[in-house]
Amino acid sequence: MPSLPLHQLSSDQRYRLLAHNAVEFGMIMFDSEGVILEWSHGAERLLGWSAQEAIGQPAHMIFTPEDRASDAPGTELGTARKLGRCSDVRWHLRKDGGTVFCDGTVNTILADDGKTVLGFCKVMREGYAATKEDAAPHRARTGERSFLGAVLESVENGIVACDPDGKLTFFNAAARAIHGQEEQPLLSEQWAAHYRLYRSDGTTLLAENELPLYRALRGERVDSARVTVLSAGGKRHDVEVTGRSMRDAEGQILGAVISMNDVSAVHAASAARDETLLEQGKRIAAEASEDRERKTQAQLHLAAEAAGLGIWTWDVTHDTGTWENERMYEIFNMAPGSPILTAAGLIADHLHPDDAAAFGQATDDAIRHGRRFQFTGRFYPRPGPDLRWLELSGMPQTDGAGQLRIIGTAADITERKRNEEALREARIRLEATLSAGEVGSWIWDIRNNHLMADRNLAKLFGVPEGATADATLERYIASIHPDDLDEVTRQIDLSVATRRPYRATYRVTDSVNGYRWISARGRVDFDADGAPAMLAGVIIDITQQKEAEDQLRATQERYSKLISSIDEAFGIVQVLVDAEGKPYDYRFEEVNAAMQKQSGLVDAAGKTIREMVPDIEPKWIERYGRVAVEREAMRFVEHSAAMGYWWDVYAMPIGAPDELRIGILFTDVTARRQAEEDLRQLAADLSEANRRKTEFLATLAHELRNPLAPLRTGLDLMRRTGPDAAASGKIHEMMDRQLRQMVHLIDDLMDVSRINSGKIVLQKESIDLAQAIRNAVETTMPAAQAARHRLDMTLPQQELMLHADPTRLAQILGNLLTNAVKYTPHGGRICVTAKASAEGDMAVIEVRDSGMGIPP
Question: Is 54 exposed, middle or buried (0-12, 13-18, 19+ CB in 10 A)?
Answer without folding.
Answer: buried
